């Protein structure tokens, strides 16, 4: 895979191994999962019944939405474009693929490679810039799946609203990382502020920690561990695993965000090479420039808090993030889960929740809406159609709905409608209605 992709000169800001590790392996996993479980995902799904519908067939039937527009992002152009496409195909939809024009080599590769394997009438690739994207958004779709910034996400949602088109918005935001004093600071430094969390893909990852919250005593210990980790796993200008900023416009934006802050580690840069070394800022204030927007680069501010309660308050006072990271060995995780809101929460590690296909990936509020990964993508790009096939065998019961509506009828209907029947718990007995099409007890109780 990566040898073929490398021939298209994709490695302008990311090397071959990182492309395979963080992009193509995930796509391959999504494809394998869909092939393995598609028959189960697409099968009718039984639902609980009331006594009123006991002998009827009640189920949810997934159906294709129709035509889906997938607008990808530039930071992981393969993963965030093709993984939704896997779910769209599995759900039976046609889809238009619009890769980001910023990662131009990847866009060109998709334009040339995908038609070799997919029906171009059902899955065409449309390349181009802002004008092409705007023209696409003016068309009517059955679903729009967008990955990118919150500012563009608003425009996508506004355009989709003209046709009442549902949207999935996979956005970003400032994801916090709280490091408690009781945790293993060395582990926290390596998995969070160091190469595993913040600096992979040169910090251009929507789920990377955007800033660290910790007590002042933790800040000094954390800086020592990050400094030591950099000596052992140094991300220098010639280090082949360390990428580059996507273009000079983003280079200048990131450098501008550091103005007025104190650099504790790093700060080295080369505009001609779009290189910014891993940088840690210390004693950052909440109203500093670097805290005004998502950094999306290899710059990590550290903000001092008095403890977990102040950290929770700091997070809650701001827009809901895509993910919250917590490093602690005690029950502080429970406090974060109970008292904050985010797309996801991950304790004692970074990024890896994205690799778990059984967990829905997505934001909430400012960080997005909708989710995907595995079956969640299938469901997101399907219409889950409610189906109820009534039996005429109990017309005497159904007649309780007819006027006159006496108190006796209402009392019976209250019993019949409010009593839920859990088919899974009732396994072992069967209900027969003399062959009149009622659901019989089996593993697919209400399959038509």
From TrEMBL:
PROSITE patterns: ALDEHYDE_DEHYDR_GLU (PS00687). One of its GO terms (molecular function) is 3-chloroallyl aldehyde dehydrogenase activity. It holds the Pfam family Aldedh. One of its GO terms (biological process) is fatty acid metabolic process. It is a single-pass membrane protein. It is found in: Endoplasmic reticulum membrane; Microsome membrane. It catalyses: heptanal + NAD(+) + H2O = heptanoate + NADH + 2 H(+); hexadecanoate + NADH + 2 H(+) = hexadecanal + NAD(+) + H2O; (2E)-hexadecenal + NAD(+) + H2O = (E)-hexadec-2-enoate + NADH + 2 H(+); (2E,6E)-farnesal + NAD(+) + H2O = (2E,6E)-farnesoate + NADH + 2 H(+). This is Aldehyde dehydrogenase. It comes from Neogobius melanostomus (round goby).
């Amino acid at each position: 895979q990566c040898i073929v992709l490398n021939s298209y000169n994709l490695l302008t800001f990311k090397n071959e191994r990182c492309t395979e590790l963080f992009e193509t392996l995930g796509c391959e996993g999504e494809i394998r999962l869909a092939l393995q479980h598609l028959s189960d995902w697409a099968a009718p799904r039984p639902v609980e019944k009331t006594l009123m519908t006991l002998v009827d067939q009640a189920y949810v039937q997934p159906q294709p939405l129709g035509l889906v527009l997938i607008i990808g992002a530039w930071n992981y152009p393969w993963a965030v474009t093709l993984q939704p496409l896997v779910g769209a195909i599995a759900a039976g939809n046609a889809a238009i693929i619009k890769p980001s024009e910023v990662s131009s080599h990847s866009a060109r590769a998709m334009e040339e490679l995908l038609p070799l394997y997919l029906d171009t009438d059902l899955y065409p690739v449309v390349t181009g810039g802002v004008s092409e994207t705007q023209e696409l958004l003016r068309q009517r779709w059955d679903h729009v799946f967008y990955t990118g910034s919150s500012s563009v996400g608003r425009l996508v949602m506004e355009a989709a609203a003209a046709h009442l088109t549902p949207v999935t918005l996979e956005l970003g935001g400032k994801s916090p990382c709280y490091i408690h004093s009781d945790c293993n600071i060395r582990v926290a430094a390596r998995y969070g502020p160091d190469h595993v969390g913040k600096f992979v893909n040169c910090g251009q990852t929507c789920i990377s920690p955007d800033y660290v919250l910790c007590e002042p005593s933790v800040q000094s210990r954390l800086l020592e561990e990050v400094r030591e980790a950099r000596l052992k796993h140094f991300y220098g200008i010639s280090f082949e695993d360390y990428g580059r900023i996507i273009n000079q416009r983003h280079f200048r934006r990131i450098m501008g965000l550091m103005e007025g802050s104190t650099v504790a580690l790093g700060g080295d840069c080369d505009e001609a090479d779009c290189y910014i070394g891993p940088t840690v800022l210390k004693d950052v204030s909440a109203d500093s420039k670097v805290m005004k927007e998502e950094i999306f680069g290899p710059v990590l501010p550290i903000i001092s808090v008095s403890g977990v309660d102040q950290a929770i308050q700091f997070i809650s006072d701001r827009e809901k993030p895509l993910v919250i990271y917590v490093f602690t060995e005690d029950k502080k995780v429970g406090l974060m889960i109970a008292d904050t809101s985010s797309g996801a929460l991950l304790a004692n590690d970074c990024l890896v929740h994205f690799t778990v296909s059984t967990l829905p990936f997505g934001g909430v509020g400012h960080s997005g809406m909708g989710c995907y990964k595995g079956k969640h993508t299938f469901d997101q790009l399907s219409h889950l159609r409610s189906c109820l096939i009534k039996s005429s065998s109990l017309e005497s019961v159904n007649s309780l709905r007819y006027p006159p509506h006496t108190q006796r009828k209402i009392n019976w209907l209250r019993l019949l409608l409010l009593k839920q029947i859990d088919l899974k718990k009732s396994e072992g007995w069967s209900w027969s209605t003399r062959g009149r099409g009622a659901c019989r007890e089996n593993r697919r109780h209400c399959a038509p």
